[in-house]
Amino acid sequence: MADDRFHVYDTTLRDGAQQEGLNLSVADKLAVARHLDGLGVGFIEGGWPGANPKDTEFFRRAKTELDLKHAQLAAFGATRRAGMKAADDPLVAALRDSEAPVVTLVAKSHDRHVELALRTTLEENLAMIRDTVSHLRAEGRRVFLDAEHFFDGYKSNPAYALEVVRTAAEAGADVIALCDTNGGMLPDELAEIVAVAAETEARIGIHCHDDTGCAVANTLAAVQAGATHVQGCANGYGERSGNANLFTVIANLQLKRGFDLVPREALADMTRIAHAITEITNVTPNSHQPYVGLSAFTHKAGLHASAIKIDPSLYQHIDPAEVGNDMRMLVSDMAGRASVELKGREMGYELTSDQSRELVERVKELEAKGYTFEAADASFELLLRDTIGGERRRYFTVESWRTIVERRPTGEVVSEATVKLYAKGERIIATGEGNGPVNALDRAVRLALERLYPELAGLELVDFKVRILEGTHGTDAVTRVLITSSDASGEFATVGVAENIIEASWQALEEAVTYALLRAGREAE
Amino acid sequence: MADDRFHVYDTTLRDGAQQEGLNLSVADKLAVARHLDGLGVGFIEGGWPGANPKDTEFFRRAKTELDLKHAQLAAFGATRRAGMKAADDPLVAALRDSEAPVVTLVAKSHDRHVELALRTTLEENLAMIRDTVSHLRAEGRRVFLDAEHFFDGYKSNPAYALEVVRTAAEAGADVIALCDTNGGMLPDELAEIVAVAAETEARIGIHCHDDTGCAVANTLAAVQAGATHVQGCANGYGERSGNANLFTVIANLQLKRGFDLVPREALADMTRIAHAITEITNVTPNSHQPYVGLSAFTHKAGLHASAIKIDPSLYQHIDPAEVGNDMRMLVSDMAGRASVELKGREMGYELTSDQSRELVERVKELEAKGYTFEAADASFELLLRDTIGGERRRYFTVESWRTIVERRPTGEVVSEATVKLYAKGERIIATGEGNGPVNALDRAVRLALERLYPELAGLELVDFKVRILEGTHGTDAVTRVLITSSDASGEFATVGVAENIIEASWQALEEAVTYALLRAGREAE
After folding, report:
1. pLDDT at A270
2. Among A498, B238, B240, B379, which lies 20 to 30 A Cα-Cα from A275?
3. Beta A426-434 vs A413-423: how paired, if at all?
4. Which residue intervals define the domain Pyruvate carboxyltransferase in the entry (chains A, B) (predicted)?
């Protein structure tokens, strides 16, 4: 078991799962729990057994399928219903039967919620807390209490809110987590209220939501005011604007405030864990996410790049390796030689200063025409190789192509494309159909080449972005197409620019096929 | 001019544009500036004239094309180069020539950055600040100073960092904005350092990045410690993890701390403005965004539902209407009856309550399919007229169309389109050529109709935006096309959605032609 002096308590599987569009199967929940345990959190709240059959099953399967190294499982549930004994309440029994070593009980601490939502008396609510905590303690469980709406409750009736804290602690709850359930608090006021609650005998925890954009700061402020138990969710998942992002909280406390929360090597795996969890939840990763986002250590301005070469710490608040992330340089219209060299090194190429000067010139020239390489790493690598090695390696030569999109009198819309090309000495003609002209072109070119290069069967167009760039000084507008492709080694992006959207798409497609063959180790002609 | 006691300073167009994947044309920048002005911010930083040709053009066009009601434009730039006079520095001249009433100078305030990145002496850096500020003040500009890396600088050499603040203020800078450039600060320490800087004579501003997930809280902490000028970006755009989200900062200060920053009715339009800006930037909106996100007031927990009916304030930290959001907003902020009625009235239509209920239903249904009416007023007006008048008024009926794009063996790329339609009882076939398939389609349809409707000769396609919308639950991705057209009465926008990009473009083109004929006063068939 982890050190008990400070708790890192994850509620992704319960409160995080309240996020719109997030639906986790039992197998998903088990997989997320393994990742969280790998990070070294102390507690994993698995769900509400009894209230939710899926969660009941989670706790059942967890007994045999989860082999936790650091974390303990917590079962979430409510205090007993009004007017009955905790020992007789089937929902309380389900918590006990989950066999989770920790039970986290949610209780009302806001007088108006007791009266309007729970429809009982303030005194009965206290009795429900006292009885349920004592009962579960007698059953050998460790009990935490989530004091729901605590801050709004404190503002409505401070004496009652504090009475809830005291009652739970006296009945044997180990932690009273103060919940900013509606997420409306700002750090200063929150810290004052936490400090008052910390003056009781109770051990205080904190549970924040991000409705004011302050969930992380509120959590830190609570810790400074005396809380020794922090709750949050992986990647900041949760209802509305989400819960406190537990990854950000951990990194801030451990790297900037000297807390020893998770093993150093686990922290260095946090970026991978954060991304692995997005694969399970199927929620698009937030590239802006502090510490672990794809862009968290990405630099665009050329101004900075030259100084970064001298000393990266001048432009980074931490060493990204501490959280398993990486510095990335974007090649953009502010490109300077330093960023091109850095980018090349990132990709494993050492450029001479002549080569990097030439590459900068070519990038600038192409960017002036509308190309962008910041989001098209594969096109940049092809350009870099051209600069080092002379001409572009060609796996095929295109003679011509044609796309037709037609709306027939029946209203049906059909797309087809024909590509004529030479490869390995052969002239090949292929026609593809698709749900649009680019899709049809993509199919046609792969169909043409698949017999000679079977690995192209695994190449897939996964995203397609189009942007019309305004013309400058009398030139026509041009269209920029960014294509993301995926093959056995992962995703990569290519770019094409032309007046004609189909021509721009073709360029990006042609680069995607070339890049896929290059990294499959194919020899060019 | 807005009240000068507290500044809301937006840097979306400069620092926000550093975000990975965010590329704004000059027209985009002008459009974003109009939205920010509509929100009532005090200052809009437009870019770095002189360093970036696009930004030079922005300031040039802003003089005639921007009619700002609240905001003043600020030009961003650096202090003069070492070893020359400010009056002789062409980059300083470009700031003056931008004719922006405010110039914001970035200056180093971290001793190591002066020595390693700027490669000059600490004393020369102070001289550069003194000279550049004085020069621009003598030219009649209001000058703000961005003290770059101030907090890291203060920790490295507090005396020097404060000397930068004093020097700039003495030379005539109105505001010294302390920048947490690397974004690594936490609120407690940041507030202590702001309080020290606020003890100087200088007026203090704050500029935060979100690398610790605390940009908003840091901004609030700085205000509490004495800052009276806050910088941030729309939707939290910016490099790495983004800048402080200006919308969140404004809502927190105005709704929770009693500041009077923007007009109440503008705040109530903030959700719409936030979404409209995402349409321009073509960045996927963050549904979790505090206050203005699609999910910001969305409730999933069934537990809450009945209590919400009794008293919504029990489960919401603010009334979502204060920021123009909606508790049950599923599709867009437009999909409320009140806003539809308001929008209709704005266009000169009085809707009965049955009509507006029906229109809301149709908008919701179409938005669920991927349409957006926020940025497509002409399509909205056509939909509104359909709702009032029954069926769509038709000036022509399409039998079929076809586009061909071909790359010939010579390398030449040609596009043509053929449209077959009926108008005024005639069957008409016309073929157009263009620099792309949509351009060819546009020419073909106008060619077909011009003899019958000569005013279409003046209709021009001026902008074309494409967005691929992710599929949900087993459906394929769809393509949304927004077309901006211009005729004798000005610009208007239409929308089309389909799997096939050409089909989506056709829909938007067909609506554009219909709308142009409608407002030219033509009678439909």
Report:
1. 94
2. B238
3. antiparallel
4. 6-274
Contact B23 A372 (CB under 8 A): yes
Using CA of residue A428, residue A433, residue A438, residue A439, what is the dihedral sign?
negative
Question: Would the pTM of this model clear 0.90, i.e. be above it?
Answer: no
Instruction: Provide, as residue numbers in chain B, all residues whose Cβ is less than 8 Å from the Cβ of A286.
Output: 286
CA nearest A501: which of B436, B416, B506, B407?
Answer: B436
Closest Cβ opposite residue A240 in set B296, B463, B476: B296
8 Å CB contact of A220 and B241: no
Contact by Cβ (8 Å): A206, A194: yes
Q: Do B476 and B469 touch, CB atoms closer than 8 A?
A: no
Per-residue pLDDT, B490: 77
Q: How far apart are CA B420 and CA B428, in angstroms?
A: 6
Q: What is the CA radius of gyration of chain A?
A: 29
Which of B23, B405, B443, B463 best probes binding to A when mutated, by most A CB atoms within 10 angstroms?
B405
A271: three-class secondary structure by DSSP: helix
Q: What type of residue is A490?
A: G
pLDDT of residue A215: 98
What confidence score (pLDDT) does residue B328 get? 46
Residue B232 β-bridge partners: B10
Best of A81, A190, A407, A439 to substitute, by most chain B Cβ atoms within 10 angstroms, is A407
Per DSSP, what are the bridge partners of residue A422? A397, A427
**Domains in chain B, please, with CATH?**
7-281 (3.20.20.70)
Q: Directed axis angle between helix B377-389 and helix B501-519, to 10°?
A: 70
The complex scores an ipTM of 0.73
CB contact under 8 A, A500 and B216: no
pLDDT of residue A282 exceeding 80, the answer is no
Tens digit of pLDDT for each residue in B223-247? Answer: 999 999 999 999 999 999 999 999 9
Q: In angstroms, rounded to a whole number, what is the distance separating the alpha carbons of residues B209 and B239?
A: 8
d(CA A69, CA A72): 9
DSSP assignment string, A435-476: SSHHHHHHHHHHHHHHTT-GGGGG-EEEEEEEEEEPP-TTPP
Cβ contact, residue pair B117, A296, below 8 Å: no
Query: Per the structure block, which two tokens stand in for B34?
Result: 């109009």
Phi, psi dihedral angles at A63 (to 5 degrees): -60, -35
Task: Return the SS3 of A263.
Answer: coil
Tokens 């710490």 identify what position?
A313
Q: What are phi and psi of A406, to 5 degrees?
A: -135, 135
A276 CB neighbour count, 10 Å cutoff: 17
A239-250: pLDDT as tens digits: 999 999 999 999
Cross-chain Cβ contact B117/A306 below 8 Å: yes
Rounded to whole angstroms, the maximal C-alpha distance in chain B is 84
Residues A429 and A420: their CA atoms lie apart, in Å, by 5
- What is the spatial distance between Cα A301 and Cα B354, in angstroms, rounded to a whole number? 54
Instruction: Name the token pair of B270.
Output: 């903030």
Q: What is the pLDDT of residue B336?
A: 57
Q: Which residues contact A244 (CB under 8 A, 6 or more apart)?
A: A207, A208, A209, A210, A215, A216, A218, A219, A230, A231, A232, A233, A236
How many other CB atoms are found less than 10 A from the CB of residue B139?
15
Region A131-157 average pLDDT? 97
- Tell me what pLDDT residue A1 has: 43
> Which of B233, B288, B292, B322 best tests the A interface by mutation, with the highest count of A CBs <10 A?
B288
Count other C-beta atoms under 10 Å from residue B259's C-beta. 17
Measure CB to CB from residue B213 to each of A184, A290, A330 and give the nearest one. A290
**d(C-alpha B211, C-alpha A251), whole Å:** 11
Is residue A351 within 8 A of residue A340, CB to CB? The reply is yes
DSSP secondary-structure letter at A165?
H
- CA-based max dimension of chain A: 89
CA distance A67 to chain B (A): 30
